[in-house]
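Internal QA ticket QA-208
Title: Verify multi-chain structure generation after dependency bump
Assignee: T.L.

Test input:
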Amino acid sequence: MIVYVALIALLFIALVAVESQISTSERRARAFLDINSAAVSAFSRFSRDIRRASSIDTVNSTLSASSGKLALIMKKSDGTNDTTTFYLSSGKVKVDENGVYTGDITQENMEVSNLTFWKFSMGTSTAVRIELTLAPDATTTVPALNFYGTYVLRGSYIQ
Amino acid sequence: MRLQNGGSVLLEVIIGAAILAAVALSFLGSFAVLSRVHERNMLYIKGDLLAEEGIEALRLIKGAGWSNLLGISTLGTRYLTVGDSTWGVTTTPEVIDGSFFRSIKVTPVSRSATDDITTSGGTVDTNTLLLESDVSWSYRNSTSTATYKSYVTNI
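Actual output:
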């Protein structure tokens, strides 16, 4: 009887320990997946819009700061301009188009702790460098990771 | 008879525990593998973005004058250096966040008699260059690389 109870107790303890490990692994896997999704969706959008842009509205941008804001000017074929603005607010990367909020490009469960934009100019070319720091929610042991990208404004230079 | 029943229950417990342990460990193993796959992918995404950034940095340098690119086209492997508002090229290896190593190469391009790009023979086209950006990093004792290549022309 004692052996039986001891075995059951050991089994129970082992199951709890394994379940805890499974839960930790599952949260880590999900956290990495969330970081991947956020990085891909953010940089896909950054690269597409920055390359389309003809100039940077430096007055309405916050450059070289960790709570960055980037206002891009896109020249249209009819001569008028569209503006797209990326900015960090409440830990999310948000997008405004022509001054109207259109949504977030990072997921709800992802914390963006740093979004820095730098304007680079060399001769006829202008580029934007981005540093994005992504951190999953606090229940995982996954550390924050920096992602970087530089994109030349194709509308800014003569090819 | 009582002893036989007791042994039978014990055996059932051991077999049950073994089955449960096998199932639990297979779940644990699956999630651990899944976690490593996603972590590896995360590093690939970062490495890929850095490699793409290398090409864009060279495109920006081109904006300051074709001669800037032409000047480094005979130097072999070089490295990027980033300032507050410019990219530059240096002989000092570039390490990003302590674990990603990036190098760049600008090489002359040759064309055949029909003006097609050729890798053997041909005539060097001084108005076309091949840009290459390589990024490498280590994960669990294995090294991964991401490479981007792009032609640029002096137009």
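Spot checks passed. Chain A has one domain: 2-156.
Status: verified.
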